[in-house]
Amino acid sequence: MSQLHPNLDIDQANQDLQGKSPEQIVEWALTQAKNPIITTNFRPYESAILHLVAKQRPDITVLWVDSGYNTDATYQFANKLIRDLDLNVVTYIPKQTAAHRDATMNGIPGIDNPQHGEFTEQVKLEPFRRALAELKPDVWFNAIRKDQTEFRQGLDVLSLSKDGVLKVAPLFEKTDADLDVYLEEHNLPNEHDYFDPTKVEESRECGLHTQL
């Protein structure tokens, strides 16, 4: 039970949404929302979730926590999507510059380096917590999918954050092949030159969906 959603039976809602299309899931979730947000990192296939939600709620706040370590291609992809979809993007950044952190930590710490946890905290988790505290969303759309990591296979379309925000993953059951079809149908771009320094390996969790 969530203070933000006191009347929501999340298990029942997940059952009710089984077999529903992503569009229907977004439509339902927006009925639960007074202050929804969608989060993005402009990784591959992000244009699908952004298009899906923004076509139903064009003014939705799009939260981008920019670590400062994205590739040039990712920044160009972000610029194009923001422009083409007319996204209402709010950007949060770490409190330290990448240059300062690189000097302090001698570059990006590897996942076996004891400093990797602190690096992840600085470039992703702290800015996210700060953003959620300031934006105060009640519904959080995200692009997680069941086939991405072992941890996510144990999740569902709907879940609650530690603060009771309703997290909604409309594409949870979809595969890359499904999203390829969606992108082609809607003439949306994709971009694969992406690197997340907090995850490094595609199957790792950075902590965003395990800790927040």
State the distance separating the first and last CA atoms.
Answer: 16 Å
- Run of helices and strands: HHEHEHEHHEEEHH
Give the strand line-up of the largest sheet: 3-2-1-4-6-5
Helix content: 25-40%
Radius of gyration (Å): 17 Å
The biggest beta sheet is recorded as: 6 strands, mixed
| Oligomeric state | single chain
Overall average pLDDT: 90
Residue share in β-strands: 5-15%
Describe this structure in words.
The protein is of the alpha/beta class and 212 residues long. The chain contains eight helices and six strands; from the N terminus they run ααβαβαβααβββαα. It has helices at residues 10-17, 22-31, 46-54, 72-84, 98-105, 116-135, 176-185, 208-211; strands at residues 36-40, 61-65, 88-92, 139-141, 158-160, 166-168. A six-stranded mixed beta sheet has the order 3-2-1-4-6-5, sandwiched between helices. The longest helix is centred in the middle third of the chain and has 20 residues, at 116-135. The protein is globular and about 50 Å long. The mean pLDDT is 90.
Key features of this structure:
11% strand; 212 residues; 6-stranded mixed beta sheet; alpha/beta; 8 helices
Can I get a quick summary?
The protein is an alpha/beta fold and 212 residues long.
SSE blueprint:
Layout: H1 10-17, H2 22-31, E1 36-40, H3 46-54, E2 61-65, H4 72-84, E3 88-92, H5 98-105, H6 116-135, E4 139-141, E5 158-160, E6 166-168, H7 176-185, H8 208-211
